[in-house]
Specification:
324 residues; Arc Repressor Mutant, subunit A; 5-stranded mixed β-sheet; 12 strands
């Protein structure tokens, strides 16, 4: 049996527990940077590695080596009688699940049985972020509760990944109109994906809007912001490297939204103080549009450059023309 999981914490706990089989920790950050339908294509690998190194400091050679290693294990999946995918409800995991289901949908499975364990809550945990919160013993209680992956799940995963990897904004929006109920957490996660796009309210995505609101209301250190944003936007499943990147971008000139000051000679330290700039106050209030300096950002296969002619209206769940 092979268990595919997101996160070394979960992988280590499964190895310590009484759950039989090998463990593969799938290391990727699909909510960040360019994605492609075929992620193992050399050109796709090079483009993605360069982006992750530039934005989050992940060395390109390390990224490439990790991808090659995990993909080799995946290619040899037929040596296993059963494979279990362990995932949770947030965007981070749902995209990983979508990618893997898309990949398996292109394979001849033979006698290998695919299973899925995907949860959005656990008894006794009030604010469930993910499987990493669970103890070895709690993870053991989930053993055997997985369900068989059939054609419906594979097809749904295929459609989700192809929509997310598309360069057409219409496909990113259109997948919300399709039936994705075979993967019960997918719809909400994909709505969260769209909420990251420039909004009809002030041109900012949900992460940047939440940061501005928290700073306006008194949260003034990077670590506090990371914790509060994580609690408010649980469905993102955003890691620290991505968050620091988003925070740095908000503080960049011209038209900086945040001022980040270090009271010591240690820039980037936990004692930094975050405040709103004059522009940040205006954007937080919806007086100014947050895309003053334009975009050069990837959301899956969608590369936004300059200032899009549309905005995402979360209330109506549709694209609207940008007011000129």
């Amino acid at each position: 049996m092979l268990h595919i999981v997101n996160g070394d914490s979960v992988g280590d706990k499964l190895r310590k527990g009484n759950i039989r089989g090998d463990v593969l920790v799938w290391r990727e950050v699909y909510p960040v940077g360019p994605t492609f339908v075929k992620m193992d294509a050399p050109q796709a690998r090079t483009a993605r590695a360069a982006y992750l190194e530039r934005t989050m400091g992940i060395p390109a050679d390390e990224y490439a080596a990790a991808c090659a290693s995990q993909e080799q294990i995946l290619q040899n999946f037929r040596q296993y009688d059963e494979i279990v995918l362990w995932f949770e409800h947030d965007l981070f995991d749902q995209l990983m699940l979508g990618y893997l289901l898309h990949w398996f949908s292109q394979q001849e499975l033979g006698d290998t049985v695919l299973n899925l364990l995907c949860i959005g809550a656990y008894p006794g945990i009030e604010r469930f972020h993910g499987l990493g919160q669970l103890t070895v013993e709690q993870l053991e209680t989930l053993a055997g509760t997985w369900s068989r992956i059939g054609e419906r799940e594979l097809e749904t995963g295929r459609r989700i990944w192809e929509a997310y990897a598309s360069s057409d904004i219409g496909q990113h929006v259109g997948i919300l109109q399709e039936d994705t109920s075979a993967l019960p957490f997918a719809h909400a996660a994909l709505e969260m994906h769209l909420s990251r796009l420039p909004s009809a309210f002030n041109g900012l995505g949900i992460v940047e809007q939440t940061v501005l609101a928290l700073v306006r209301d008194g949260t003034d250190t990077p670590l506090e912001l990371f914790k509060e944003v994580g609690d408010r936007l649980i469905l993102l499943g955003m890691g620290d490297l991505e968050f620091w990147y988003r925070l740095r971008r908000m503080a960049e000139q011209p038209h900086a939204l945040l001022d980040i000051r270090s009271p010591s000679a240690m820039p980037g330290g936990p004692e930094n103080v975050v405040s709103l700039t004059e522009t940040g106050w205006a954007v937080a209030a919806g007086i100014k549009d947050g895309q003053l300096k334009g975009l050069d950002e990837w959301y899956g296969g969608l590369h936004l450059q300059g200032d899009p002619s549309w905005r995402w209206d979360a209330g109506r769940r549709q694209l609207t023309a940008q007011d000129s």
